Amino acid sequence: MAGNEWLPWIALETIHLGAEAEVISGTWIGRKAILKRRIPRGYRHPALERSLSRQRIFAEARILARLSENKVKSPILFGIDPEEGWIMMSKIDGQSLAKVLQKGADYQVEYKLGQAIRKVHSTGISHGDVTTLNAIWSDDDVILIDYGLGRLVAEMEHFGLDLHSLHECLSAHHVDRPESMEKVLQGYLDNSNSENFDARAVVDRFEAIRGRVRYHA
Ligand SMILES: Nc1ncnc2c1ncn2[C@@H]1O[C@H](COP(=O)(O)OP(=O)(O)OP(=O)(O)O)[C@@H](O)[C@H]1O
Ligand SMILES: [Mg+2]
């Protein structure tokens, strides 16, 4: 990487080609970076497409900025171009939680996931798509990524829904770890760094949502 600090974006490889986004790893002024580009979907009206894409990029950018301001571990925002439809951020080294859990990790991974979600929530942000693929195990800690569906003015319901989407992910993809959600909730309720945030109320809301969903299923 020597000398790279004088160079802007250098693309290295495409690491993810999803339905909505293409993710390329590379370097930016010598730092490991990720460029996420929205892929226009043919089935939506172009104007709607542009506005959705802009909205998600702005949401993700503003959220990453707020998280850094609040010292919550997260990718550092490097830049955006909402018109072209891309966002650039620092690359988090590590493996997805999905992989780490599949390999059979200690339950402290889920505990730390719970703590990580709570830290994000305590800054007023909801994530919008909490799954084990949108979380990275890095330096013995959990870092959430992919904030395109997040909200900066989150309500109790959004916090509860975050726990609920994780619960659905765990019960669909990590059935061999029956205590996963319990550990997540324990981590979420861990009040060792006592911010002014009512985690208990969020867990209660999550239980209510779970009841609602079961009832209608
Ligand atoms: N900052 C990052 N550091 C390391 N890996 C990343 C980072 N951002 C994205 N990735 C990798 O790329 C994958 C896809 O990125 P991401 O989840 O942000 O996009 P997506 O799931 O297509 O999101 P959406 O459809 O909501 O735009 C991630 O699961 C992860 O493996
Ligand atoms: Mg994702």
Strand content: 15-25%
* Distinct small-molecule ligands in the complex: adenosine-5'-triphosphate, magnesium ion
- Largest sheet strand order: 1-2-3-5-4
Along the chain, the helix and strand elements come as EEEHEEEHHEEHHH
The helix fraction, in percent, is 40-55%
Number of strands: 8
Low-pLDDT runs: none
First and last CA, distance: 53 Å
Give the CA-based shape: globular
Helix run count: 6
Mean pLDDT: 93
> What structural class is derived from the secondary structure elements?
alpha+beta
The CATH architecture classification of the largest domain is: Orthogonal Bundle
Our count of domains comes out at: 2
CATH class of the largest domain: Mainly Alpha
Question: How would you describe what is shown here?
Answer:
Helix 3 (108-121) packs across helix 5 and helix 4 crosses helix 6. The chain folds into two domains: 4-90, Phosphorylase Kinase, domain 1, CATH 3.30.200.20; 95-216, Transferase(Phosphotransferase) domain 1 (Transferase(Phosphotransferase), domain 1, Orthogonal Bundle). The protein is built from six helices and eight strands. The strands form two sheets. It has a five-stranded antiparallel beta sheet with strand order 1-2-3-5-4, with helices on one face. A three-stranded antiparallel beta sheet has the order 6-7-8. The model has no long low-confidence stretch (mean pLDDT 93). With 217 residues, the chain is α+β, with helices and mostly antiparallel strands. It has helices at residues 46-69, 97-102, 108-121, 156-173, 180-189, 199-216; strands spanning 10-17, 21-28, 31-38, 77-81, 86-90, 95-96, 135-138, 141-144. It is globular. Bound molecules: adenosine-5'-triphosphate and magnesium ion. Magnesium ion is lined by residues 133-134, 146.
